[in-house]
Amino acid sequence: MDSIFVFYKNLRYKSHANSPAWSLGAFRFGFGILLFVTATRYLYYGWVRKYFLEPSFHFKYYGFSWVPVLPAWLLYPIFIILCISAIGISLGVLYRTCIAIYLIGFLYFNLLDVSTYLNHYYLITLLLFLLFWIPADRCFSLQHFLDAYRNGRWSIPRVPNWSLWILKFQIGCVYFFGGLAKLVPDWLFQAQPLRIWLVRNTDFPVLGGFFTYPIAGYVFSYAGLFFDLFVPFFLLKPKFRPWAYGAVLIFHLLTWRLFPIGMFPWIMIFSALLFFSPSWPLQARRFLKKRGLFPYGEFRNLLKTIWLKFPVTLRFLLAEYFFKLLHILEKPNAWGRRSESAISAFTSKFALRFGTWALGIYVFLQIFLPLRHFLYPGNHLWTEQGFRFAWHIMLIQKNGIASFRVTNLRTGETQYVLPESYLTELQKTMMSTQPDLILQFAHFLGEKEKSRTGDEISVNADVRVSLNGKKSRVFIDPNRDLMKVKDDFSYKDWVLTDSK
């Protein structure tokens, strides 16, 4: 017991010791840019309308059915606000206020429809939550640059070690539990679903021909397995870190090119830099400058040449507006100062009183959630119980066909309903293979018919699903009245096993 107490005391002391904030500042700057790209993609590709406005029905997370879909005249401005907040995060201007705004807005959009769930959206939410408590604006922020310009030298801001540790832990969880989830028969012995996906990429440069061979699936399956399981530990070791990061680059660039997984590779590539020394940005600058690869002088001369080509009056006008903008950004209005001060005071007070316990609970949840599928019987890849929020990345290729029988219990009349009558293509695809979404849609159909007739209604689902290229099987008990089934976290005995 004494040794445990000593260990805890030493850990607490080391976690509150300080490290240079260079790495954390660089992460905040780059992460803000990635957040900006994430929000603008919704506007550019029309996803706001496609995912939130066009559907007449939305699948909700358990306990969040009350979250409404706002009208278009509110949704679009919210995304614009997210873009502005992302810029504030990147520049470190009203940092915690911008983090809070982006976190709330991003969480809201993710709660609107379960069918849009993506692992990297979950990761973004977690990183935003962690950054809210971390003083990541001390370095590489606008104020930090201005102070360096005025003083003629860089200050060396510092942050507590725990702020770097918890971010490393979170990124490590994505890799490790992603690898642990791959220890299943389909991945190990059938190389599925990679064998299915690789043959779709035979036009890939150099490797395309290799993808046609069955061995390619096994090579990529086991490479992905060992990469996920061990790369976070190699990143922690300075001796192996450069090689491990090289593997990170190759792995994520390859998956980005092969598979449609959005921003996930870029988030992981940038986040993995947190495993390097807290002073890695300075070390990288010295390395490049020593070899003549740091073009600061040339870049400055180029800007000066371009600047001098402008007319004098225009230069004065631009300079005037530039300094006004700097003044606004450096010294935000009274509301901004009050909100930032209030949030900073709250986070400091909370961390002082509950920080250790809060960190412990967070770590426990991040270990428990990826393992909770062991609490349910059966193949979790089939039932998908405990599948979300568990870093089960690229594990399944499921195809399903669903229809519903809506029966009026008073008259005995039965209607056959196809999902496409109410759902978008994405919603239909996601619903056809996920039990909780099938149940939600069945309740929607039943309640709709009940409100129309006033009679008691039963709803049965006829669903067949194929998992990882296997023959399709009946997925939902066709004789079970889903109107009598409640949506909760208990074992779903109305989902048939994949062996039947």
From TrEMBL:
Location in the cell reads: Endomembrane system
The topology of this chain with respect to the membrane is:
Multi-pass membrane protein
Q: Which GO terms describe its cellular component?
A: endomembrane system
Domain HTTM-like, residue spans: 16-280
Q: From which domain of life does this come?
A: Bacteria
Its main subcellular localisation, reduced to a broad class, is membrane
Q: Does the keyword Transmembrane helix apply?
A: yes
Record key words, sorted? Disulfide bond, Lyase, Membrane, Transmembrane, Transmembrane helix
**GO molecular function, a single term:** gamma-glutamyl carboxylase activity
Q: What is this protein called?
A: HTTM domain-containing protein
Which residue spans traverse the membrane?
A: 21-44, 64-86, 93-109, 121-141, 162-181, 215-236, 265-282, 343-365
